[in-house]
Amino acid sequence: MISITPPVVAASGLSLTFQTSDGPVNALADVDLTIGKGEFVSFIGPSGCGKTTFLRVIADLEKPTAGSILVNGMTPEQARERRAYGYVFQAAALFPWRTIERNVALPLEIMGLSQTEQRERVKRTLDLVNLTGFEKKYPWQLSGGMQQRASIARALAFDADLLLMDEPFGALDEIVRDHLNKQLLELWARTNKTICFVTHSIPEAVYLSTRIVVMSPRPGRVTDVIQSTLPKERPLHIRETPEFLEIAARVREGLHAGHSYED
Amino acid sequence: MRWAGKSIIPVLTILAVLIAVWYVAAISMNAPFQRDTNARGGVQPGTWEFIGQTLSQPKPTLPAPHQVAVNVFESTFLRKVTSNRSLVYHSWVTLSSTLAGFGLGTALGILIAVGIVHIRALDRSLMPWIIASQTIPILAIAPMIVVVLAAVNVTGLVPKALISTYLSFFPVAVGMVKGLRSPELLHLDLMRTYNASAAQIFWRLRVPASVPFLFASMKVAVAASLVGAIVGELPTGAVAGIGSKLLAGAYYSQTIDIWAALVAGSVVAALLVTLVGVAGRVVERSMGAQPS
């Protein structure tokens, strides 16, 4: 008997049409994509290209209208019920009435872990995102970057193998963003999770990913999938190397191609 | 209290203006009766003496502020609190039914809100009835509640408390429906990613999110409860309470007593609203609210 691990995400012919008062909107049209275990896949494209929608379909926050998608070989709903993924939203979405440690413990409470287990995991994940010492603070007492780190800790706390991140650093300034990008790569290397990462930023996508999915809007579809040739070990200054710039150029081209028909 | 420091001068200025206007009104409104009395008695007082007379009538049309103040002081501090001439006694009678009604009303309001938020059928059917319930004038329905309950031998505090309940459940229900629905879509999505049950979403997200709404509506509800209790005392021929004091004053033209009872009512109302406000701030602070 050979057991084959199914891909973490397998989408084929995936389409999603929103019915709005202005008529149907094709958020996703005929998307085929397979994501393997341990990959770091970035989704990049202009607003309305369906990158967030695709993430939300994986998370079972939206239902596709056509095509099929499997998460760990299950339907997204089954995967969600088994807490297969951690989701990091654009905003930190911390509960303002909970301290940082109680925010991180929220999914653990819901999943019914014991108090000791909760304490242990909260401590471990806060350490992972460098927030040790801020356990008793309320969200408003933290900077935007720290709040976002706390929300990442919350997504990591229950140790799902898949991390879905929807522009988690979009609202942060570039210095903080660089820092968090570096930390995220370190975290990914240490935990060997699969990460799906939505972004607007070409350097961010190239710096982080093993694979970059370029998308274009109306209808939202995949225009290019770029396999990164960068090594797994990536210091910040790798962003000045010719190799990096070459990949960035290809991403930019892909984005451009997706847009050209509009003019 | 920075707030108090900044607004104390404007508040006192307004108060001074109000008192001045009140005195002028008292003099002019009590003047005709005083002129009559003097004419019948054949007295010809000077202007200052006449003004003094208008401000010291035993049953004035509009009592002067100092007359009300003296009455309030005497009937608050100089009488035994168990005497039925004590304002403290009457305030307590009203306060006890206010609190009973407020407690019941708040509980009922929360219960209704929870039902509306969680059960679709209630959402569709209940709200119009709740709104309709508040369009019926309380003055019309209060005597009926009292009479009907008296017929089944329920008298005293309970009918008054029920009238308070009738008035106070409404703001709480409306506020809590809003509060329980106040969580952002983002937070609801987050709970969904954890596959949280409806009960978990309720206790961990909806309830804490609704707390500010609860206290805001409880402030309105507690004031409404007091009105309900006073109104409940009017038709019952109640022997005690601020409402009965108002009614007795009206029967015997004891205008000063009426105004003193009004003052007692407003003091109780202010105390209750402040108390709810302080409780709200304490709770929100303990929930990590940013001090403002």
From TrEMBL, chain A:
<dbReference type="Pfam" id="PF00005">
    <property type="entry name" value="ABC_tran"/>
</dbReference>
<keyword id="KW-0547">Nucleotide-binding</keyword>
<keyword id="KW-0067">ATP-binding</keyword>
<protein>
    <submittedName>
        <fullName>ABC transporter ATP-binding protein</fullName>
    </submittedName>
</protein>
<dbReference type="InterPro" id="IPR003593">
    <property type="entry name" value="AAA+_ATPase"/>
</dbReference>
<dbReference type="InterPro" id="IPR003439">
    <property type="entry name" value="ABC_transporter-like_ATP-bd"/>
</dbReference>
<dbReference type="GO" id="GO:0016887">
    <property type="term" value="F:ATP hydrolysis activity"/>
</dbReference>
<keyword id="KW-0813">Transport</keyword>
<dbReference type="InterPro" id="IPR027417">
    <property type="entry name" value="P-loop_NTPase"/>
</dbReference>
<comment type="similarity">
    <text>Belongs to the ABC transporter superfamily.</text>
</comment>
<dbReference type="GO" id="GO:0005524">
    <property type="term" value="F:ATP binding"/>
</dbReference>
<dbReference type="InterPro" id="IPR050166">
    <property type="entry name" value="ABC_transporter_ATP-bind"/>
</dbReference>
<feature type="domain" description="ABC transporter">
    <location>
        <begin position="9"/>
        <end position="242"/>
    </location>
</feature>
<dbReference type="InterPro" id="IPR017871">
    <property type="entry name" value="ABC_transporter-like_CS"/>
</dbReference>
From TrEMBL, chain B:
<dbReference type="InterPro" id="IPR035906">
    <property type="entry name" value="MetI-like_sf"/>
</dbReference>
<feature type="transmembrane region" description="Helical">
    <location>
        <begin position="258"/>
        <end position="283"/>
    </location>
</feature>
<keyword id="KW-0812">Transmembrane</keyword>
<protein>
    <submittedName>
        <fullName>ABC transporter permease</fullName>
    </submittedName>
</protein>
<keyword id="KW-0813">Transport</keyword>
<feature type="transmembrane region" description="Helical">
    <location>
        <begin position="157"/>
        <end position="177"/>
    </location>
</feature>
<keyword id="KW-1133">Transmembrane helix</keyword>
<keyword id="KW-1003">Cell membrane</keyword>
<feature type="transmembrane region" description="Helical">
    <location>
        <begin position="129"/>
        <end position="151"/>
    </location>
</feature>
<comment type="similarity">
    <text>Belongs to the binding-protein-dependent transport system permease family.</text>
</comment>
<dbReference type="GO" id="GO:0005886">
    <property type="term" value="C:plasma membrane"/>
</dbReference>
<feature type="transmembrane region" description="Helical">
    <location>
        <begin position="92"/>
        <end position="117"/>
    </location>
</feature>
<dbReference type="GO" id="GO:0055085">
    <property type="term" value="P:transmembrane transport"/>
</dbReference>
<dbReference type="Pfam" id="PF00528">
    <property type="entry name" value="BPD_transp_1"/>
</dbReference>
<keyword id="KW-0472">Membrane</keyword>
<dbReference type="InterPro" id="IPR000515">
    <property type="entry name" value="MetI-like"/>
</dbReference>
<feature type="transmembrane region" description="Helical">
    <location>
        <begin position="7"/>
        <end position="25"/>
    </location>
</feature>
<feature type="domain" description="ABC transmembrane type-1">
    <location>
        <begin position="91"/>
        <end position="280"/>
    </location>
</feature>
